[in-house]
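Long-time lurker. I teach an intro course on protein structure, and each term I like to show students one example going from raw sequence to a predicted 3D structure in token notation. This year I'd like something fresh instead of my usual example. Would anyone be willing to generate the tokens for the chain below so I can use it in lecture? Attribution to the forum is fine with me.
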Amino acid sequence: MYLIHDTDNSNTQIWAVCEDYGQGPVWEFHVYGLMDSGDVRTCPSIDMAFELVGADPRPVLEIAPFLADH
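-- Reply from a regular --
Happy to contribute to a lecture. Here you go:
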């Protein structure tokens, strides 16, 4: 797991995870801190994860463009 977004003064974080379900590696994005229950939201794309937290994914994609490939 890689921490790719951590909002200042907030509990909201986005973690990138590379999983393999038998058909090659797939990136998933886990968003923590949105639900009052503490449950995590799993997103299939970096854009969806950043949309949930209201942030721009471009700075992360400039550093790690491979995250957009999956």
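Some talking points for your students: The mean pLDDT is 90. The two ends are 16 Å apart (CA to CA).
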